[in-house]
From TrEMBL:
<dbReference type="InterPro" id="IPR052960">
    <property type="entry name" value="GlcN6P_deaminase-like"/>
</dbReference>
<dbReference type="Pfam" id="PF01182">
    <property type="entry name" value="Glucosamine_iso"/>
</dbReference>
<protein>
    <submittedName>
        <fullName>Glucosamine-6-phosphate deaminase</fullName>
        <ecNumber>3.5.99.6</ecNumber>
    </submittedName>
</protein>
<dbReference type="InterPro" id="IPR006148">
    <property type="entry name" value="Glc/Gal-6P_isomerase"/>
</dbReference>
<feature type="domain" description="Glucosamine/galactosamine-6-phosphate isomerase">
    <location>
        <begin position="14"/>
        <end position="214"/>
    </location>
</feature>
<keyword id="KW-0378">Hydrolase</keyword>
<dbReference type="InterPro" id="IPR037171">
    <property type="entry name" value="NagB/RpiA_transferase-like"/>
</dbReference>
<dbReference type="InterPro" id="IPR018321">
    <property type="entry name" value="Glucosamine6P_isomerase_CS"/>
</dbReference>
<dbReference type="GO" id="GO:0004342">
    <property type="term" value="F:glucosamine-6-phosphate deaminase activity"/>
</dbReference>
Amino acid sequence: MKLVIEKDVKAMSENAMYILLGAMLQDKRVNISLTSGRTPRQLYEMMIPLVKDQKKFKDIEYYLFDENPFIDEQYGTNWAEMKEMFFEPAHIDETHIHRITLDNWIDYDWQIRQAGGLDVMIIGLGHDGHFCGNCPRCTQFDSYTYCMEYKDKLAVNPTYGERPRQPYTITMGAKSLMRVQHLVMIVNGKEKAEIFKRFIEEPVNEEVPATILKLHPNFTVICDDEAASLLSIEDESRL
């Protein structure tokens, strides 16, 4: 694992953007996976004018890695947020966006492998140490993409709040992420400092599911000074 500490969220976002653009400029089919949420918002703001209507990026394929679909609908909040933050303003053709659904999740990993695998994935670190849809005490470390009832996740994470219109949660598991060629995590803000310290210092455990990702052979973690504020010099030098 490589740890990169930047001074602020702008520098962190720039670093992640250079990794993405470098992968996207390869002379082959390029498959990438992007995260929704608060953390990548500035990253996408920087990328949009560089990607929008650019022929050299027109054949990039985008894969969503988790979803909580609404009842009687194929898609959920993740798809809606990614459309708003990046896909629509960057003029990404929907034929190049691959969504995870209740109908295709069983074959999702196979479809990605048939397409050459994911070149790069950007993920965040959840406030409680979750990654993608893999949450404390209910993460299946030995799984590829899987589906579970939301009530089972809520039973062990009661602070999540009920989602009566979204009864299922679908996510790529740890094994799916281990297949990504370059896995990149971005973390920022004081509010993430404590969980980030736990992620760095603790061994693999179900209370902080993201710890499993430290086993990935090509894993880059980019954070800002605030997120790294509780790390000791020993922590930083060990990585």
